[in-house]
User: What shape does this take?
Amino acid sequence: MTRPRRGRVFTLVALLLAAVNLRLAVTSVGPVLTEIRSGLHMSATVAGLLTSVPVVCFASIGLLAPRLARRLGAGRVIAVGLTLLTAGLAVRPYAPGPVLFLLLSGVALGGIALVNVLLPSIVKDHFPDQVGTVTGLYTVALNLGATTAAAATVPLTDGFGDWRLGLACWALAALVALPPWLLLARERTETNQPETSAPPVRVIRQPIAWALAVYFGMQSTSAYVIIGWLPQIYRDAGLSAGLAGVLFATTSLLGVPLGMGLSALAGRVRSQSGIAVTLGIFGIAGYFGLWVDPAAAPWLWAVLLGIVNTAFPLVLTMIALRGRNPATVVRLSAFAQGVGYLIAIPGPILIGLLHDVTDGWKAPLAVMIGLMVPQIIAGFFAGRDRQI
Assistant: This one.
């Protein structure tokens, strides 16, 4: 579909502003998790549940996105998602207890879930010949947002003298992203146009869809264990809260250049299997380093885990490439992300429980090393040159 250049630039800006917000609600929590637990009297097990709230919301609410997009339009659904995110981020820090904090986190993350699923279809619809490059750009924006929240939440908390205000200020970023999508909400795209030439594709019957879902689930498990527990692993090894936050931010910061380059490369090659396998090997090395001693070479472990985290832009690019049109991409995106996040739900909870039971990080990190194997296998099959 051909669109005027100014319209494409406006859409790209809107897309990037939305992408900046896709991890703020998650990465802002880890660096001040100790303060949150103390302020809300939250146990380690409940904290592990907190790290799983994102995957629960992304799995359950993300599956509703295709139906909502067909009825309302992708732009309107994304605008609704950003509204929910703004409200959740602004209110949740002032929850009086852990249960309400979890529920309000669910509101914010439910908004993110809607945006998560629909952005690949926006890329396919507006930039069909630049899927890899534009996906790379918006994952760069996503990583910049995640990195900023991870690195700045502790200084903001120290500056304000209150972790609640340090978390609530991130609602401003979501508020800034909302106006362009209110304008784009008037547009009707291919994601919600009737499909008269062929019946809707049933992605659940497609092996490539299952490969993408498993790969998405494995990389999500790894990503949310890193997001939820990496700062605590470093702090438990004797590193300061500030340094732990910076090391954690490094894992996201690496996604800026690597995510851009990786997505552009993935969009140009016929098969992405080799890329997926290589990323998994880096993941094994990073988790093994933490297992041996987190404080021995903390920067190296952070770099290795930052590299494996670029599996996220890779899988988003593969989702957009595996679908022949935007309508198929939104279904494939919902299936891969919905099922993938369902697969990922137990991971962060299990890591928290293992830590409580063993009073250490050896067993949890051994599990993470083992989970890299199915990620590598699923990535190999998801990366093959196939289309739905």
